[in-house]
Amino acid sequence: MSKSFSLRSVEVKLPPTERFSQFLQSRGKRITQQRRVIVETVFSHHDHFDADELIDHLQELIAERKVSRPTIYRTLAELVEADMLRKMVLGGRSVYEHAYGYPSHDHLYCQRCNRLIEFHSDDLERIRDTVAGQHNFRVIGHRMFITGVCAECQEE
Ligand SMILES: [Zn+2]
Ligand SMILES: [Zn+2]
Hints:
By secondary structure, the protein is an alpha+beta fold. It folds into 2 domains: 16-98, Arc Repressor Mutant, subunit A (Orthogonal Bundle), CATH 1.10.10; 106-155, 2-Layer Sandwich (Dna Ligase, domain 1). The chain is 41% helix and 16% strand. The protein is built from 7 helices and 5 strands. The protein has helices spanning 16-26, 33-42, 51-57, 59-63, 69-81, 122-134, 151-155; strands at residues 85-90, 93-98, 106-110, 116-119, 145-148. The protein has a 3-stranded mixed β-sheet, with no helix packed on it. Strands 1-2 form a two-stranded antiparallel sheet. α2 (33-42) crosses α5 (69-81). It is globular, with a radius of gyration of 17 Å. The mean pLDDT is 91. One zinc ion binds at residues 48, 97, 105, 107, 116, 118.
């Protein structure tokens, strides 16, 4: 969890732990200390990550038995259900990123190094809305991946 991204975060009314707590309450569950730590770690900075990378990041707390692996997996699934994380399956790997507090965007996906490059295009959204309109379709969102080979990998 190290690469940085250029898109600015968007203002949200509630901190992620509060938003997640509300979601859990609506399911008759409570936010435990474990879940709170996981959510704080996940939302400390924007990145694309898989469960293994998150587990690596929480290694110390796992060793101290403050967080367990099953809870990490369960919390990731709950955050996706709460629409706070977006899950993408790329090359057989489940990758997560923030949906809460982060603007909508699309990705260029390098098939050699698995790098995800983010971009936002108003032109693309216009085409999306035009196509949806032609089908009398109400847009909620979209996902687009441009697959290929990044500049660095092309040099090799
Ligand atoms: Zn690459
Ligand atoms: Zn992204």
